[in-house]
Amino acid sequence: MRRSSTLPAIAATVAAVSLLLGGCGSTEPEPGGDPASSSPSAEPGTSGYEVATVEESVPEEWVREPGPRPEVSADLIARMGSLGVDLWHFQRDVQPESDVWVSPVSVYQALSLLAPGVGPEAVEEMLAAMGVDSGETAANTGDVADWITASRRSGYQMALYNAAFTAQQYGGFAPGYLEAIEPIRDELGGFDRLDPAGTADLINGRVEEHTRGMIEEIVSPGDISADLVFILLNTTYFKGDWVYPFDPILTGPGSFTLLDGAQVEAEAMGQYMPLAVTTGEGFTTAVLPYQGGAKAVIVLADEGRFEEVADAITTEDLASYAAAEAGEAEYWVSLPTFTSDSGIQDLIPALQSIGVEQVFTTTPGWPMYNNADRHAIEFVNHRVVVAVNELG
Questions:
Q1: Pick from 365, 368, 366, 348: which is nearest to 357 by CA?
Q2: Which of 2, 13, 131, 210 has its CA 20 to 30 A from that of 338?
Q3: CB within 8 A of 249, min separation 6: which ones?
Q4: What is the C-alpha to C-alpha distance for residues 72 and 160, in angstroms, rounded to an integer?
């Protein structure tokens, strides 16, 4: 968020996000254990999943069919929001000079893919961070996925893609794990960890396809190590049209104030519109509605109070601002047109800060593979791209 010399600071109108988890494995026994008790889950090349390839277009079978739109509880939305706000606050602290974007839906989906595959102590940490009880994860996440898929019938577009890949040289996922992720998994495949460039191309190709070209890269060949055994991937896509679109004729050069007080020139769109506006201690909020019922909540800090306001933001606050209703009064709204890219963010420290720690330490017996091997998450890559223009 940045302070503008006019009204709003940011709005997420067209957003594509991607979150990637990669896990490594080893056959090293626990201290004091029997070296003979650990063994690979399968002989090389017998994973049961063919190495996936990037197609020219997304196959129909990858597209989740829109069924009845389920009810997603406000409590579940609040849990996802709380997770996202916690991670956003941490990322702001470690990237104070950068635009920081976090997608709660994407993180929640990826963790839901991971949770059934880790050990009991690790899963308790994850469920606590997600705010759910054991057994709720897949059902809740499936409801969210179905709700988002059904949104294609509304005035805005949302799309989810969840995938689980296993190293062809290692072994197949355990049947129990596959059953647990079935409600949310869109693709199951293999990758060749001995071909880092090819594997990176595979994953990045999936990301580019499912974010409609907005994100082209989430992983590099350097991330594909010789002991990588699985990759879990989520992409989330949103595109919304403003209820009150801006007239492009009124878009022109405007002044934008940065946090250090410097002013830069930016293309700014402006228009009068009905607006839900609230004021608080040191800030003003505005709600810009999308067709179909989604909303962009903009928080504009008073001059000199950005850090104070940003540090205090909670999920409850955002929900309260979003619930405000527009009156008959119209306001002049000025927004810069922009595209912002968070770049590839490492979310491991942020997840550790909210208590998710054990999955990053090698431990044996993960249900994902149902063997005695030791596994750990090696990387968690997250990237968000947001674009704002006159239409949405």
A1: 348
A2: 210
A3: none
A4: 16
How many CB atoms neighbour CB 177 within 10 A? 21
Pick the residue with more confidence: 65 or 171?
171
Give the residue among 130, 205, 129, 197 at the shortest CA–CA distance from 161.
Answer: 205
Report the candidate in 64, 18, 58, 83 with the shortest Cα–Cα distance to residue 231. 18
Return phi, psi of residue 76, to 5°.
-65, -40
Residue 151 DSSP class: G
Instruction: Give the pLDDT score at 257.
Output: 82
Burial class (CB in 10 A: 0-12, 13-18, 19+), 302: middle
User: Shortest CA distance to 292 belongs to which of 390, 157, 148, 143?
Assistant: 157
Contact 315, 324 (CB under 8 A): no
What three-state secondary structure class fits 200? helix
Is 169 within 8 Å of 194 (Cβ atoms)?
yes
Nearest to 90, CA basis, from 390, 353, 357, 281: 353
Q: How confident is the model over 190-247, as pLDDT tens digits? A: 899 999 999 999 999 999 998 989 999 999 999 999 999 999 999 988 888 899 999 9
pTM of the model: 0.84
Q: Is the separation of the CB atoms in 108 and 144 below 8 Å? A: yes
Q: Residues 117, 121, 126, 130: is their CA dihedral positive or negative? A: positive
Assigned token pair, 262: 């410097």
